[in-house]
Every structure is written in C-alpha cells, then in structure tokens.
TrEMBL record:
Matches recorded under SUPFAM superfamilies: ParB/Sulfiredoxin
Matching InterPro entries: ParB/Sulfiredoxin_sf, ParB_N
Region (Disordered): 224-260
Protein name in the entry: ParB-like nuclease
Residue ranges of domain ParB-like N-terminal in the record: 30-114
Organism: Streptomyces azureus
Extent of Basic and acidic residues compositional bias: 243-260
C-alpha cells in the first residue's frame, strides 16, 4: 500500500496547526496492528480512563479512526479507542497517519484532545499550554489559548511565571501574521502615513506600518480628535515602566491583542465551535448561536451595510453601539469571573 500522510512545517502557526487538525479528518484510513502502536503524546496526566474506554468498548457502532504519528507509531489522538479495541479483542484498528516532527505531533495531540472526545481537565490544559509556550514562544497568547482550550489571559499569566523563555520582539497571531509586541512605532508610522495621505486605505497603511487594520483605524480616529496616535498608557509602558514585561500591560493583557482582525476573530470562533464542552452545554450552545451571528458580521460587514434600508441605519447603529457596550461589560465579567466549570460528564 502506498503510504499517504499529512505533513506540517516545523515552524507552523497555530492557524496552520488547527487547519491540519481539520485536514486529518479527510486523510486516508489504514488498518494498523495494535501491537505496533505506542502511547507517548497524551496530554492527559491521568492517562487512560478505564471506565470511559470500557463504555466505548460496549458501543455497537464503529468508532472514528485514531490518529498516529507514522515515524514513531505513537498515538496522537484516540488512546481510549485504542484501549477499547484491545478490550474487544481486536488485533487491528483504523488509523489516519501524520508525518511530521515529534514536537508537532505533541502540539497536535493537545489540539485534537481539546476539541473532541473526552474533554481535558483544567490542569491538563494548563500543563499543555505551558508546553506550547516553551515550544512556540513566538506564538501570541491568544494563539496558544485556542490550541490549549484556555483564555488568553490565563496563557499570559502562565507565560509571565515561566523562566528562561527567549525574548520575542514579534508574536505570531491566530491569522499567522507576526506583529510587534509594542505597537508604539507602528502607530507613530501609521500616523505619519495618514497625515501624508488621508485617503489611503486602512490595509495599505497597516501593511506599511506593520500593524493591524483595526489599529490603523484607531490611529485615524485619534488623529481626527487631535490626540496622540499612541495611547498614553502604551506610551508610558514603552518608555520602560516595570509593568511592560514582554510588551504586557498591568493585569496581564498583551498590547498586541488590543485589536484583532476579522480573520483572527473567525478563527477563534471556529475553534470554540468545535469544543465539546460548549456544544454539549445548553448555555454554551446559546453562546455559539450568538457568536455565529457575530462571525457573519465579521465576514460580510461591507455587504450587510450595502444592502440595509437607508432609513434603518441610524437606529441600527444606535442599537449596535448599545449592544457593543453590553458585550464589553460581559467580556470584562468573563475575564474576572472566578466561576470554574464542573467536572465533565
């Protein structure tokens, strides 16, 4: 049989890792001997849950193929299915293969176990995030958070506690683009470019200044008000305040993530939509339905505006501003919430 595998570049972004996870679902399926397989990539500190594996063994339906790292024949995703197959006395199991480095396989194991099957515990997600920070320090907090199934704030706190990490002047976001930790210079350059050509598009300025279009929009608005293109708190931190470790504001928020592109927001939503702990929770499903409408806005904002009845635009604008304020308050409450989810059932 001709081996067909799925590959990933060793320095891939989190976006490519998530895309790879989805692509593996379309990879060809092969039969593999159980005796040839090993387990070395599991992100679960407690190992295989015997009761869960037994419940899978009692199912009459065929279980999905496992995912295996071909160079080492180690299981990336599907250890419970592997145990179930052994309990049923099987000698072979259906598998899809990944061909890449051990480090990439370990990252893939986290991404796949977060999004499907038996949910990882909070402790396992934290441990996984720490391993990703060590392996990919150039990834943004939000990019790591999506893979590990945590909040960007939590990843930021973990990064702050870790010692010996290399200093990265730029971080790679969810959209695969590298942006500077500090946007001060980019904002200043964007301000100069906008003064020279006020009619230039946001994307043109963003490309030349090395910042996101949303940040350019904020610079433009600040210039129209007669303000400094750089917010005072960023200007102060950039001078060398103690709170500016690795470009981080007090409270743990990364300035690189002050604004996010529509592509990043859509990527984040797609990752959340695959999370079983949200899909299997009534309130989680309600949130996903609401966010689905927001994703539509992120994708088709221009087309929506162009096709709205003109006499409704002012009322809609007022309504959107009101809901935006509520969403900001809700986001703040989520960030400071001490509520922790109960055990998965």
């Amino acid at each position: 049989m001709t081996h067909q595998t799925v590959r990933v570049h060793h320095d891939s972004s989190s976006e490519r890792l998530l895309a790879l996870k989805d692509a593996l679902g379309e990879a060809p399926v092969e039969r593999v001997r159980l005796a040839d397989l090993t387990a070395s990539f599991t992100p679960r500190s407690g190992g295989v849950d015997g009761e869960w594996a037994l419940a899978l063994a009692h199912l009459e339906s065929e279980l999905p193929p496992i995912v295996v790292h071909r160079p080492t024949l180690s299981v990336i995703d599907g250890l419970h299915r592997l145990r179930a197959a052994r309990l049923k006395g099987r000698t072979h199991i259906a598998a899809r293969f990944f061909d890449g480095s051990r480090q990439d396989a370990a990252l893939l194991a986290v991404a796949m176990n977060v999004a499907q099957g038996r949910p990882l515990s909070q402790g396992d997600r934290v441990a996984a995030a720490e391993r990703i920070v060590a392996a990919r320090p150039q990834w943004s907090d939000r990019a790591i958070a999506v893979v590990a199934g945590l909040s960007a704030k939590k990843v930021s706190e973990l990064r702050a506690r870790m010692e010996g990490l290399p200093r990265c002047e730029r971080r790679v976001g969810l959209d695969g683009r590298a942006r500077p930790l500090s946007t001060v210079q980019g904002r200043e350059l964007a301000g100069e470019l906008l003064r020279a050509d006020p009619t230039a598009s946001l994307r043109t300025i963003a490309r030349r200044a090395g910042i996101s279009p949303a940040t350019v929009a904020d610079v433009r608005d600040r210039l129209l008000r007669g303000d400094d293109p750089v917010p005072p708190r960023q200007r102060g931190l950039a001078v060398g305040g103690r709170g500016a470790r690795e470009g981080r504001e007090p409270g743990g928020r990364d300035r690189e993530e002050e604004t996010r592109s529509a592509e990043e927001l859509i990527t984040l939503f797609e990752a959340l939509r695959r999370d079983p702990s949200l899909r299997l929770n009534e309130m989680g499903r309600s949130m996903l339905r609401m966010l689905d409408a927001c994703a539509l806005l992120a994708r088709d904002r221009g087309r929506i505006i162009a096709n709205l009845p003109p006499h409704c635009t002012e009322q809609l604008a007022e309504l959107m501003r009101g809901y935006a304020e509520l969403c900001q308050e809700f986001a703040g409450e989520l960030s400071t919430s001490t509520v922790r989810p109960g055990p998965a059932r």
